[in-house]
Structure prediction request, 515 residues.
Amino acid sequence: MQTDRKPDVYIMKVVTFGDKPAPAMAQLALRMTAEAAEATHPKAAQVLKESVYMDDICDSVREASEAEQLTSEIDQVLQEGGFKVKGWTSNEALKGESKKEGETRILEAALEDKVLGIAWDNQQDMFFYKVKETVPSSPNDGKNEESLLTKRKVLSRIARIFDPIGFAAPVLVRAKIGMQQLWQRGYDWDELLPSDQQKWWVTFLKEMQDLNNVKYERCLTPPMAIGQPTLCIFADASEVAFGVCVYLQWKLEDGKYAVRFVLAKSRVAPLKKITVPRLELQAAVMAARVYTTVMKELRLQPESVIFMTDSMIALSWIRSEGRRFKPFVAARIGEIQSHTNPAQWKYVPGELNPADDVSRGLPVKKLSERWKQGPAFLYRPKEEWPSEKAVPDTETEVESERRKINHISAKQNDVIDVKKFSSWRKLIRVTAYVLKFVEKLKAARWIRSDDNVDPDERCLSTAQLQKAERFLIKEAQSTLHQRVKNGDFKTLSPFVDKGGNYQSRWTARQGSDIL
Prediction:
């Protein structure tokens, strides 16, 4: 054994799959490859940096020739980095695809459940679901415990459907509501559910298999579309859930309109019960957040953006100043107004709001109706959309959330109670002494010993008595300011003298300074 020899150093030239850092290393190598090619192939580098999910490259272009050039550049860039592309799949035939037809078919079968968990029919250019669900037997059939459902099994089956776009949100929100009810009833994870719950979940899981028949368009731009689309975002809430859905309205060359589903999102209402108007406001917050995400990812530039809700109370809050309301409402109004313009928010009747489907739930068979196609009024010009109407009894609910400010006024007690004096002369002298005492405190001239006090200082001067008299008159007239402004004493011709007291022309001539 050569203990004095330096050890040999070996470097792995490929990623060893199974190691914990392997995924991060692969993504880092891919990003470095893209950055190295930014100067020579900028479009390919941008796609590799922004449109790669795991080991899939997902991108969309308008023309087949552009797709052919882009795939060729990506192949070249990846080859320089040591990556090998197994094949391309497109909704239109590309040059070179026919040579790999057998390989491509195998890849299509393998990738059905890999592209964001959604299968893609490239012939029709449609997304669809592929649900492989083993529905347990009915609880009435032998009652085999292995086939009966628990909370853990139910959650496991629901989680198998990955729906990032949210097209199945009206169906899955029913499952979320059902899971929340199981949680409220306190069932353990491995506790068998009662027979009524078993029946409901077995029926629901069977219905979920009908998602295999659901398809929706991948492309957001319909044929013959002209101009830029209108982005329409709907929000709604019920006592059990709230959610939003997004559509694009396009104008076609023949003057008609087409609608495309973009995105949807749902959440169950919190266990701590809150009012429906607050849930409607929470749905509006979700709409603002979804809008931010859509605008970040959408390559199209909408002509206009319109938010719609069927809650006049939430609409009134959004159009108001947030600081006037309680913290719950104020914080959410602030977030909404920071991402959207209150002028973009419109009212839509509840029966025409497609977000009502995601807040209450839909059976699978109804997904292809209004939920997929969008509300009927989107197929008409904006001038023919529902107009906003005043809804009664909303002001009470709006005011209930308004911040209440209590004004506290402290009444200052007079140091000298004039009611205790029967002599005007005595009242003036006491007031003069009090004012003299206050002056000494302000001037810090208080003398503790009487030995050095000038006898004249112990007596009141004429000026001090006059000052005390003017002070008492001014205090007595303090309540007359508004009345003088209102003209209650016009006949007396009041004016303000040098001391700040009111006098009348007549009393001034008579030598009195009391109004």
Q: What stands out?
A: Residues 22-106 form one domain. The two ends are 121 Å apart (CA to CA). The longest strand covers residues 225-237. The chain has 18 helices and twelve strands.
